[in-house]
Amino acid sequence: MASSADKTAILSNLSLGKITEYQENYAPELLQGVPRSLNREEIQLQHDLPFTGVDRWTGYELSWLNPKGKPQIAILQCEVPASSSHLIESKSFKLYLNSFNQSHFDSLEQVQRTIQQDLSLCANEQVMVKLVSPREFNTLVMSPLHAHSIDELDIDINEYQLNPALLTVEEQWIEETLCSDLLKSNCLITNQPDWGSVLIRYAGKKIHHESLLRYLISFRKHNEFHEQCVERIFCDIMQHCSPQHLTVYARYTRRGGLDINPFRSNFEQIYPEFRLARQ
User: Catalytic residue positions?
Assistant: First the structure.
């Protein structure tokens, strides 16, 4: 188990929250991974994870030069397995992608292979990477979350510090899919706000909708990375509501041309790709 000093040392070595110079030539060393164990120890996750899933990233600011020096563009889609030992730190990811700007590559396929290799090394597990070319942009889908929104509930809110004890259940057994666009947490290091929408699909005793909304809003002043927040939500619901099946899928608004969308489930695979209006 990592000590507090070890955690502080790991986080202090990240480029996040520090003044950095942008590099315009390919620099894979810019990528930085964060051990997933740092947060998982706190929420008592062991090696046998109670979920599977991926961190699905979308990169909208990817460009490079072809052999003749002509700029090329693409949209990056990648999935980092939740089973990887390291998550990809978002600022380092942005700086890494920026380093392609003045670098020459023979083809889109070469860029894709290069990014896949570098991300896989950083995460310490095979990462899926796909580059969407401009002629394929019209195939990208914008869609709402296909779930019942709990955001219109007319309730009083007075807790903005994380409180999983807010979660309660009823005796009725149910299968349902709920969502909220009111998820907000803050970056662990910079305290910048992270805005997101979250889908929760489960089978079990009915989660009291008001309690779930209060719980999600209680993240409003909580500081944690996106991936860690989703795993915390999964574990808190499992502990306090004990559903038989559970999926937690969050889609966060982009920052610096990147959005991250962590998916965790104990019974299903990630859904086909789409993006929300705020993304």
Answer: 187, 194
